[in-house]
Predict the 3D structure of the following.
Amino acid sequence: MKILPIGTQSFQRLREDDNLYVDKTSQMYRLAHAGRFFFLSRPRRFGKSLLLSTLKAYFEGKKELFEGLAVTKLEKEWKSYPVLHVDLNTGLYTSAEGLEEVLDSIVSDFEQRYSLPKKEGSYAIRFRNIVEKLGKTVILIDEYDKPLISTFDNPELNNQFRSMLKSFYSVLKTCDQNIHFAFITGVSKFSHVSIFSDLNNLRDISLNADFSDICGITEKELHTCFPEYVSQMAKDQGITDEQVYEQLKAMYDGYHFANDMTDVYNPFSLLNAFADRDFRNYWYQSGTPTFLIKLLSQHKINPTSLSEKNIKIKDPTMVDENYTAPIPIFYQTGYLTIKEYSPQTKYYQLGFPNREVESSFLYNLLPIYTNKDALSIDLFFDEVITGLYEGKIEEFMRALKEFMSGIPYEIIRNDEKYYQTVIFMIFRVMGVFQMAEYATADGRIDLLVTAEDYLYLFEFKVDKTPEEAMAQINDKEYLLPFRHDNRKRYKIGVNFSTEKRNIDEWVIEEDC
């Protein structure tokens, strides 16, 4: 078994150290011969840096690094070009001076590497001089928007960065005749940065089906490249290989980057899961989206709509320059993905890609909705999660009432939807499958929850009685579609009191 390349972003290092490599070189070759200027948007830690490093080695003509890979059957000439690799991943973007230092360092490195004299003027003027002196050049820009993403919540500095980057990237247009190939990666597509506003021949392949799996790992690649790791994981977990595949799919699969809906696994999470032989929230923990959670709260977007795939959008790749519309940002940063596409309306339907992202994101929303700290939330889950899987719904309801007590008045909105949303998030974080407002022939169920051997149907009322909620369940026969389900079924009618600002009473009936 080869070493898993966790954190390795250098293609040359990966190949020289004989790390495992999922062969993307046929897609790389197709890209290199499909035009001259390309842009690709993908979430963080999705393999963009490794892809650029692979392109760098290819355009430098390092044939020896590609031995045994698909591209060796396609490429016959192996020409070498000067490659300018601009990497904005490592900068500390807390001031305009910080970005200037990064750009100056990048340009200085190019001047030294190609023995070019330092030209007087700004880093943009020097960058242009380098491209003109080198002739047919390959330019690879990694995370072009990192300074902008890092200052989402600082409008003044964000505007400064946008102006500075516009000047730097304008070289791509002014030196067009000197550029053999250019590839730019990032998270968001900022139309006011010169890459998109000035470079007319730039091809955005972010939603192109031909390149939907150029980053990430497909189902076929998982089964082809990782069977030994799956078997090792199954042995450690005490489950079958097939069960490992099922859990990996639920946790880390589900990303779609084109209309063809090709499934793509998160490579960072997958590699870490194999290394630890465990199922954890790796990608989410590597960068908690505090700013995005604030955006969601500010725009009053109901988390239920994210899980139930109720978000529709025309173009998920374009970002509002003032960040007033948060949904494209959620898609571009990887917290939402394409769930469906309508060729008739040209609308994309978005939702959480998998269990890792959904449970982690909702977990970080719970403090906003409940004003509970992380310790209180963790203690609650430790207390109730086993009981829910064992059918102890009465104990769960008592623990839930205690958990929701003490929520400040200003947080609670005295309506059914607020309480339903909180309970929805709790169930989702616990990893049980549930659907909010599930439609039947005679109405909409407030909440339907399944936990292995049990099925729970909730109906909520505000300032009424739990008996009224139960009567609605029975009168409308909400459980009729599930009569042939072998799981034990419970009906729960719940009443919330605006005076008590909590669950007031509930009634539970077993469905026979």
